[in-house]
Amino acid sequence: MKAMILAAGKGERLKPITNVTPKCLVYVNGKTLLERHFNMLVRSGVREVVINLGWLGDKILEFAGDGCKFGLEIHYSNEQDEILETGGGITKALPMLGKEPFWVINGDVFTDFDLPELKLDRDILGHLILVTKPYFKMKGDFDLKLNRVIRCPDPALTFGGIALYHPSIFDGYTVSRFSIVEILYKLIDQQKLTGSIYRGIWEDVGTPDRLKKLNSIS
Question: Using H for helix, E for strand and C for coil, what is the string for the chain?
């Protein structure tokens, strides 16, 4: 199984740190978020990874290289100055991800989560890892009903930035700037999106204050 790490964004909320450092290369207790993701992938049996590059992508390439020092084979999808957001970024990388389901991980989350051995049922096209709505969010993203992801007026769960997708969900989409959320909504309407709740360590390293807090307690 392959995985993709989303790392092209500018990390606007993490400025001024991200003026000179890509958000996935910020350190939490002496180790970058990206290396922590690499370690998680290796523990979970994933050996082939695609990383999309955009803002300060040369620094990510310099840090990770071909991946051999991390026990991985890394490929790069370079978006350069035309950052494509989540949906467009994955669509551009599809030729490297193949025709089987693959994991996608946001580069700016901190977690002790390990990818499970998960197979999508025949009628399911995606699976989201959800977490309890964090303190800094006014509203959650989704909820669960019989393991299916649903939308509701007051959702209690937040998308954890980790998901398993079947590549067919991108059929008909071209390489352009768009969010994966519009695809997720379609899958929810079709009842083809499942989810599970992770209750371990999970943090969105979205602001300098959150990063500072994380370094002080982790």
Answer: CEEEEECCCCCHHHCCHHHCCCHHHCEECCEEHHHHHHHHHHHCCCCEEEEEECCCHHHHHHHHCCCHHHCCEEEEEECCCCCCHHHHHHHHHHHHHCCCCEEEEECCEEECCCCCCCCCCCCCCEEEEEEECCCCCCCCCEEEECCEEECCCCCCEEEEEEEEECHHHHCCCCCCCCCCHHHHHHHHHCCCEEEEECCCCEEECCCHHHHHHHHHHC
Over the stretch 68-118, which tens digit does the pLDDT of each residue have?
A: 999 999 999 999 888 999 999 999 999 999 999 999 999 999 999 999 999
Asked if 81 and 54 count as a contact pair (C-beta separation under 8 A), the reply is: yes
Burial label for 59, CB within 10 Å (0-12, 13-18, 19+), is middle
Angle at 86 between CA 32 and CA 45, to 5 degrees: 55
Pairing of strands 31-32, 157-165: unpaired
User: In percent, how much of the chain has pLDDT > 90?
Assistant: 89
- Cα separation, 40 vs 101, in Å, equals 18
Q: Report CA dihedral (120, 122, 125, 126) to the nearest 10 degrees.
A: -20
Q: Going from the N-terminus, what domains does the chain have, and what CATH number goes with each?
A: 2-217 (3.90.550.10)
Cβ(125)–Cβ(165) under 8 Å? yes
Q: Return the pLDDT at 138.
A: 85
